[in-house]
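Can't paste images in this forum, so I'm doing it all in text. The chain is below; anyone willing to post the predicted structure tokens underneath?
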Amino acid sequence: MKNCDALISVGTSGVVTPAADLPHIALASGATVIHVNTVDVGAQAANELMLVGRATDVLAKIHESLSTGKNNDNG
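Text version of the structure:
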């Protein structure tokens, strides 16, 4: 985690350790942390992003955007 540029945290409550510690370690190292969950987990850092939705839907959109190099703001 200390050497990653980005961490995608999918479908976790962020409560149970050791998994709950991973986003904090990544953030402290300067990485961007992207949370994907059906409920807002309270992303608060400047380099932290919250994407609310089902993991299958959100990850498919991320994959599509990365594959095409396009950002689709229309949902």
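The chain has a mean pLDDT of 89. DSSP finds two helices and three strands in the chain.
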